[in-house]
Design goal:
The chain has 502 residues and is an alpha+beta fold. It is 34% helix and 19% strand. The two termini are 25 Å apart. Keywords: FAD, Flavoprotein, Nucleotide-binding.
Length: 502
């Protein structure tokens, strides 16, 4: 991702070399993404028709959270902003109503209806179901996002990596297969050169550490401390399965996050297979027990594929840019994948690197600002994820019971208390950009609450006529939208057939 992006940003004005080891196992398990990933492909000048079918991709309209109340109920966190009525989001007006026959997500969003009907966000002519602009800004970035794009993607991470590798090499990026045997640090504390097994000495002006959890350059060679989040985000392992399916007619346009005895399970539907993974804490369960529980939980009897066990390093490097080294991806930061932020962190780090790209000599003020921005994003997502677990109602195992004993940061506790009679707005969530807007925070608060929330007192003094009309028409609008869209299977089959014809 990094090499492809930099090759597009700087054309051939910067010499870029990717050093890759054949011996390093890729972690890719099938990937769910965040809606902002669209800007990454826009920046590269790639339409989804050019890569989605090649990478076993499918659409993601949001996340379906299952059994977080311990009662097997569910709710959706979609990529959709709420309508605003008289200065308040429609969710506030929904709370004002004393009775309702629908959950908040079905009553106030359109996307959950599309998810239930397994609809594609695009019609067969390629047009979008939503009002969001589908016009690329040429080289759009996160900073240019004004409207909420209505979907993200699921895709095979290995296939996307191969696709981007070809893209980068076609743009002049050099590729070397070799192993680093030593990192030489010079008298100023910079990386002087890399010693490799075959090529010998390799020297660069700037080194980008994409070595994953290993942090070979940033943590091991430069000794930058790693800030662990294990005191509040305790899940530290995952076990994943890739399960093939011949029938592609039942593709869900969403990621599922379902609670398990000691964590949660993802379901990521790709075009011809499903990815399943169990994220858990090994203080409560062994890897063997976790794999067995995962296999029992999935609906495929033929899931005899080998499991991929992953030990996760949860937290961030204290600084992601040190001297002449910038850590991107897992070497920079990782929080558990509950909200699909792994690729988002990579994308944000790359974009900020382009913004703060150095001249021949390093600028400490620029480096400091880069690190501040990266840390703000990661810390903001950490707080958002902690909200999920702290509000979960499931309490039938020691794992879930002990979430209630975790001491929450004061700012998060304040937000939770405030939300009981005042859904959060953009000035009360994390004050710096981290990808999640107020509708995301309030969706999780509404979905995980035990029904004790109330609307803002001001709404009781207002006439709800317009809001009532919108809520009444919502079901009609959703039904019409569902009837006018193909299923995910139909659209993706059309896309694959078009790819075959080309």
């Amino acid at each position: 991702m990094t090499a492809a992006y930099l090759s597009k940003a700087f054309a051939q004005n910067v010499d870029i070399t990717v050093l890759e080891s054949k011996r390093v196992k890729k972690i890719g398990v099938g990937e769910a993404t965040f809606s902002t990933v669209r800007h990454y492909f826009d920046y590269l000048g790639l339409d989804e028709s050019e890569w989605l079918a090649k990478c076993a991709g499918s659409y993601k309209l949001g996340i379906r959270f299952e059994n977080w109340d311990g009662q097997d109920n569910h709710f959706y966190h979609p990529f959709e902003r709420w309508e605003t009525v008289k200065g308040f989001p429609i969710s506030e007006w929904w709370l004002r109503k004393s009775t309702t026959n629908q959950g908040f997500d079905y009553a106030t969003f359109l996307t959950p209806h599309l998810c239930e009907a397994k609809r594609s966000p695009r019609r067969l002519d390629g047009s979008l179901f939503a009002q969001s602009s589908d016009k690329s800004l040429g080289q759009s970035t996160l900073a240019e996002q004004r409207a909420q794009f209505p979907y993200a993607y699921h895709f095979d991470a290995d296939e996307v990596a191969n696709f981007l590798k070809r893209y980068a090499m076609n743009r002049g990026v050099s590729h070397i297969e070799d192993d680093v045997t030593h990192v030489e640090i010079d008298e100023n504390g910079n990386i002087g050169h890399l010693e490799t097994k075959i090529r010998g000495k390799l020297k660069a002006d700037l080194y980008i550490d994409c070595t994953g959890f290993k942090g070979l350059l940033i943590n091991q060679a430069l000794n930058e401390p790693f800030v662990s989040f294990s005191d509040v985000l305790k899940n530290n392992r995952a076990v994943a399965l890739r399960v093939s399916r011949e029938d592609t007619r039942d593709i869900e346009p969403y990621t599922t996050a379902r609670t398990m005895s000691n964590g949660w399970r993802w379901t990521i539907p790709l075009y011809k297979r499903n990815g399943y993974g169990y994220v858990y804490c090994d203080e409560y369960q062994s890897p063997e027990e976790a794999e067995a529980e995962l296999r029992r939980s999935i609906p495929y009897e033929n899931a005899d594929c080998a499991a991929n066990h992953i030990r996760m390093r949860i937290g961030r490097s204290n600084r992601s840019w040190v001297k002449n080294c910038v850590a991107i991806g897992l070497s920079s930061a990782f929080v558990e994948p509950l909200e699909s932020t792994g690729i988002f962190f990579i994308q944000h780090g790359i974009e900020q690197l382009v913004r703060f790209f150095p001249r021949s000599s390093s600028n400490e003020l620029l480096i400091e600002e880069y690190n501040t921005r990266v840390n703000r994003v990661v810390d903001g997502v950490k707080e958002f994820l902690l909200l999920h677990f702290s509000l979960a109602q499931r309490n039938d195992t020691l794992y879930w019971k002990e979430w209630k004993n975790i001491e929450l940061p004061k700012e998060l506790l304040k937000k939770i208390m405030l939300a009981k009679d005042h859904l959060l707005d953009k000035e009360t969530i994390y004050p710096f950009y981290h990808g999640f807007e107020e509708y995301s925070w309030n969706t999780m608060i509404l979905g995980l609450s035990s029904g004790s929330l109330t609307s803002k007192p001001a709404l009781s003094l207002m006439i709800p006529d317009k809001a009532d009309e919108i809520l009444l028409q919502h079901h009609v609008k959703a039904k019409k939208m569902v009837s006018g869209l193909p299923t995910c299977h139909e659209y993706l089959q059309y896309l694959h057939n078009s790819e075959d014809r080309n």
